[in-house]
Write a structure and sequence with these properties.
By secondary structure, the chain is of the alpha+beta class. Helix content is 24%, strand content 26%. The chain contains 6 helices and 8 strands. Strands 1, 2, 3, 4, 5, 6, 7 and 8 form an 8-stranded mixed sheet that branches. A hairpin with a 5-residue loop joins strand 3 (33-41) and strand 4. The longest helix is centred in the middle third of the chain and has 12 residues, at 93-104. The two termini are 17 Å apart.
């Protein structure tokens, strides 16, 4: 329900918590048009951008503890700032978006959080969730990669979080815009509801 999603003016360095999520809507120039890569989710079979909830590794930790993922493994992000004080203070939504992008693209795309923080973004607050859920979606231009490259990465992946998608396709930006602004088109595939709701806000 779109009424549950509200645009909010969250801070640029908004800190990750159990009530935050983030992702990236990538785009590339190819054959004279703008294309957007989306993955087909393994649960709903809808097409979605890279993103998800903030992980334990992005949240503030007690002194002396090291940030870990929900699976209990230390972060292996080579781009992440590693200062102990930064780990204890907690990371930002840019760190969440970067991790989700690396995991779900199987390392094909990665963004330094310090640079990603300054990329354009949309913030929405889902008031339907308990205590609310703030979701930030960044926009980032990337190099066009053939869908077969993504699919090969899925086949070779061993971690569960790297197999959340069963397929990848590039969609023309104008078709995604049509899906947001027009009546449902039976010729277009099913896009992920929260993605459509985010793009439909007034941010």
């Amino acid at each position: 329900n779109l009424a549950n999603y509200k645009s909010v003016p969250a801070a640029l360095h908004f800190q990750a918590s159990q009530n935050t999520a983030a992702g990236v809507l990538h785009y590339a120039e190819h054959e004279g048009e703008i294309w957007i890569p989306l993955g087909q989710r393994d649960d709903t079979k809808e097409w979605c951008n890279f993103g998800g909830k903030s992980d334990a590794q992005e949240m503030s930790t007690q002194e002396g503890e090291e940030p870990v993922t929900e699976g209990g493994h230390k972060s292996t992000n080579p781009l992440k700032e590693t200062k102990k004080a930064k780990d204890q203070a907690g990371l930002t939504l840019a760190d969440t978006a970067d991790r989700e992008t690396r995991e779900e693209s199987n390392g094909l795309y990665a963004h330094h959080p310090r640079l990603l923080r300054h990329a354009p973004f949309i913030d929405v607050l889902d008031t339907e969730k308990k205590d609310g859920l703030l979701y930030r979606m960044y926009w980032k231009k990337v190099q066009y990669l053939a869908p077969e490259v993504f699919k090969k990465k899925i086949e070779d992946a061993t971690e569960a979080h790297s197999r959340e998608y069963t397929d990848f396709k590039w969609f023309k930006a104008k078709d995604l815009l049509k899906a947001v602004t027009s009546e449902p088109d039976p010729n277009l595939p099913a896009f992920y509801g929260p993605l459509m709701e985010t793009l439909s806000t007034d941010s």
